[in-house]
Specification:
This protein is mainly alpha-helical. About 80% of the residues lie in helices and about 0% in strands. The radius of gyration is 22 Å and the shape is globular.
């Protein structure tokens, strides 16, 4: 009996998990609910699809670009203090989103929200790891719950809110939750101190890559105009300067580019980037198609979208076993093929007519397929990296992976905008080229998964 009690996790561990996971859950939910409300926001603020997609794209871009700051800020502020600052900033930015009266104010508030939210997930994982001890394997799965639950809860929550209130309330509902979570975090999370061993941060690299990516994506979105071409050129120059800078600084750079000389790591990271691009491109496209193209209410659209998260939730727990049993390439490519096959009927429905049972089946299969790509590709990438490079590889892989989101939404927004200009009357047919582009993107994901190794091998492959 005493042995069982000794092996039981301390209740403080579960309190810590419950508190810190509120942060990434709120961030993921916020990312999901906006997808359903995008059509309402576009009409309310009189914005084009190319501009309104930055409500998603700006959030995702900020989410990616703050990741390198995580370890540096923890060293200087301590994990608990940084978590409280981030959660407070996220809550205040939520108020700014709801109070926005123009599309540019909303995008600016979403960028601030993304910057705060981008640190909440790694902070949650870090604080759980610090208190879990030998129970780490038992509790680490809980850190994935926000990612799994948000796609299920988000569309339904958004539909319910939009039925009785305007889109700003999708952000205002964060306020009481955020205040309560900050109070709980202040009271229940264990104290820690800033680190005495403070690592240097590559400010020059950060100053090159952040505006470079933002300008490149903005220019891509405005490519037909002179300002767009100028932005693309400026962004390209800044990114070229970053590459030169990173090659010179090597391991001290924001991204150690030598890691991408490891073929398996480079292929796994490319798979993650393309997969993220297809996920967020679909999250932009499908709600717009349901509401603007098929005439569904936000409530109905939210219910139709929920099975996608359910599909992911069903397959995710078995990914470790399946990857060990069948290998990285087989599992990831099967997931990519299923995602592609689930998209083709959507392309058909944009021309032949909407079917609720068929769309629900497609979204369930699409969620399952997407859930089968991540674990095998990440496992292959990390297994190819020497142990002493894992910290650098984690940062590099996460930054590249998260950049797929804004790239995917920007490309799809360009296709939708061009189709709307060609078919101003609207209707479901407007979205046919966008679904074709999404299918092509997922074909690229499938091709990338086919280049993964058959099975995970130790980092002896690093020199390959």
């Amino acid at each position: 009996m005493s042995g069982d009690a000794a092996d039981r996790p301390d209740p403080a561990l579960w309190r810590t998990c419950a508190v810190v996971l509120l942060g990434p859950l709120m961030a993921q939910l916020d990312s999901t609910v906006v997808n359903v409300s995008l059509s309402n926001i576009q009409q309310s603020l009189g914005a084009s699809i190319g501009t309104v997609q930055w409500v998603i794209g700006g959030y995702l871009l900020a989410l990616a670009l703050v990741l390198p700051l995580n370890a540096w800020l923890v060293d200087r502020l301590g994990a608990k203090r940084l978590y409280l600052w981030c959660f407070s900033a996220f809550t205040l930015a939520s108020f700014g989103c709801g109070a926005a009266t123009t599309i540019h104010q909303l995008i600016a508030a979403r960028v601030l929200q993304g910057a705060a939210g981008g640190l909440l997930a790694p902070m949650a994982q870090m604080m759980i790891a610090r208190v879990a001890g030998r129970h780490m394997a038992r509790v680490i799965g809980y850190s994935a719950m926000p990612v799994l639950l948000a796609p299920i809860l988000g569309p339904s929550v958004a539909g319910a809110v939009l039925k009785v209130a305007g889109w700003p309330w999708l952000f205002f509902i964060n306020l009481p939750i955020g205040v309560a979570a900050v109070v709980l975090a202040a009271l229940l999370l264990p104290r820690d101190l800033p680190s005495a061993d403070r690592r240097a941060f590559d400010f020059a690299g950060f100053a090159l890559i952040s505006p470079g990516l933002a300008l490149l994506l903005y220019g891509l979105d405005h490519a037909p105009h002179a300002t767009g071409l100028a932005s693309m050129a400026a962004g390209g120059l800044l990114l070229a300067a970053f590459v030169r800078h990173a090659r010179h600084k090597e391991a001290a750079a924001l991204l150690d580019l030598r890691l991408f000389g490891i073929r398996t790591f480079a292929r796994a990271t490319a798979t993650q980037l393309l997969s993220n691009a297809s996920i967020y491109a679909g999250q932009l496209l499908v709600p717009l198609f349901l509401i603007a193209g098929c005439g569904l209410t936000p409530v109905a659209a939210g219910l139709v979208l929920a099975p996608m998260g359910l599909g992911m939730l069903c397959v995710y727990p078995s990914m470790g076993f399946l990857t060990e049993r069948f290998g990285c390439r087989a599992v990831a490519s099967a997931g990519a093929a299923l995602t592609l096959l689930a998209t083709l009927p959507m392309l058909w429905m944009s021309q032949a007519g909407f079917s609720t049972p068929l769309m629900v089946a497609c979204l369930l299969a699409r969620g399952a397929g997407q859930g089968a790509i991540g674990v095998p590709s990440i496992s292959a990438g990390y297994a190819s990296v020497p142990r002493d490079k894992l910290a650098l590889a984690t940062t590099a892989a996460n930054i590249v992976q998260r950049l797929g989101g804004p790239i995917g939404t920007t490309v799809l927004a360009i296709v939708i905008a061009a189709s709307q200009a060609r078919l101003p009357a609207g209707g479901a047919a407007v979205f046919t080229p966008a679904f074709a582009a999404l299918a092509l993107l997922q074909l690229l994901v499938l091709a990338s998964t086919m280049r993964l190794p058959l099975r995970v091998h130790p980092a002896a492959a690093a020199a390959a």
